[in-house]
Write a structure and sequence with these properties.
single chain; Formiminotransferase-cyclodeaminase, Chain B, domain 1; Four Helix Bundle (Hemerythrin (Met), subunit A); 3 domains
Length: 569
Amino acid sequence: MEKRIIECVPNFSEGRDKEVIRQIAEVIERAEGVKLLDVDPGEATNRTVVTFVGSPEAVVETAFEAVRRATELIDMRQHKGAHPRMGACDVLPLIPVAGVTLEECAAMARKLAERIADELKVPTYCYEAAAFTPERKNLAVCRAGEYEALPEKLADEKKAPDFGARPFDEGVARTGATAVGARDFLVAVNYNLNTTSTRRANAIAFDVREKGRPVREGNPITGKIVKDADGNTVMKPGTLKCCKAIGWFIEEYGIAQVSMNMTDLSVTPLHVAFDEVCRAADARGVRVTGTEIVGLIPKRALVEAGRYFLHKQQRSTGIAERELIRIAIETMGLSTLKEFKPEEKIIEYILEKEESAGKRRLVDMTCTDFAEETASESPAPGGGSISAYMGALGAALGTMVANLSAHKAGWDERWEFFSDWADKGHAVMTELLHLVDEDTEAFNRIMAVFAMPKSTDEEKAARSAALQEATLYATEVPLRTMKAAYAAFDIVRAMAEEGNPNSVSDAGVGALAARSAVMGACLNVKINAAGLKDRAKADELVAEAERIVAEAQRAETEILATVENKINQ
């Protein structure tokens, strides 16, 4: 299951008082379930941009508490700065990173805006994807007139905030108003060029950026700029949607770059922009020599890039995630100026490192350590984790045969067929590896219940309810393992029938491992279901498990017959 992660980038109207900035950042730093990534104060703007990430629930709660602290510390009546502003927390966007859609972030933003207005008494506008009206998608519309215009706007029904509208009073005078929104993740990227010419870099930037360049009469460089009937400059759009770009010279490296902000990776992915900048540069006699990611990037951007570049080579994409990322790094030259370290640049990896500090996951152990941990006197890991791991190995074998077949000499025209199967197999394997540790987590939840107090009737009732909830979870996890392991049969069957005949025995072993995983997990379903008081639910879960076992046994028999037949040919 993909972890759900969102980013929040609140802008606070204080960039000079270090103690105020520290206290606001401290709220975020101490919060559970989030990681503070950056605190960027600006003295001239008198504004601090803070960046943090985490689970949606934790980020939203932390954002609320950070706004609360900002309204306690910042008095907008005293604020002056170069940047437009209208409140102590001026803007607060929620940004999807992984496992969350922009629409979901917009819904969260609206609820957060309402809560800020209700509980903190701060008027709030909703902007960008969270806007209730088309015109308010534009932050500038919401913030028009800045803080000084709030008395007039609060009195005007058409300009009033979405939540918390009331006459301008002492409270609003102190806190100002806040804009809460949702937007896509912004990636800042620079493309290195083998030239020192800023003019050529700008020309390439204008070729590709969505805004494009002004249309000119006659000479495209010196000709008179064309205006429309209203006197506006007529623009020739560039080739990349949702991209802003300029060219500049970087004295530190002695090269020119195309500097680009990518505002929607779902419209223009990183790899598409890279290829297009390469094409535009080549058309002007310039080469892209590398790429520089400024700040952080979501994992999906590099995984998709790795798949794209492998696909162009007609190579199987059903390989490990970190290998896909390595392909992306090498192809785009992300380490040309400075080593690109995934664990420091990819948001998900930063969070994983934070969460795993002091923890030891089973899937991170060596084979020997895993076996010895299983053999110890501890009851976990046990049969459930082993079943999930057997299923992962079964899927891995099917994936291996698919990758070998995709690269088999003489089978070039079938590479994509096998690559698709390798992708499916890798997804099944990844899910089962996740379940290796989740099964142990299920056991730990049950053990945690026995540590709960049970002195009073109320405590006993809470303990009993918690035990039933944990037992149901411990029953559902191995059932998920059964379903995932059963999905491995599709891969090993296809590879037994269509894959490299030299590896047909591997497909057969994959079927054996998948069947063992299904049957082993079924035993865990049954033993845990026995502890459920809801017997109808228990019977339902056991019946589903037994059905999957019967189907797995049939699938194994059919696949092994195919394997034996091919071996004996």
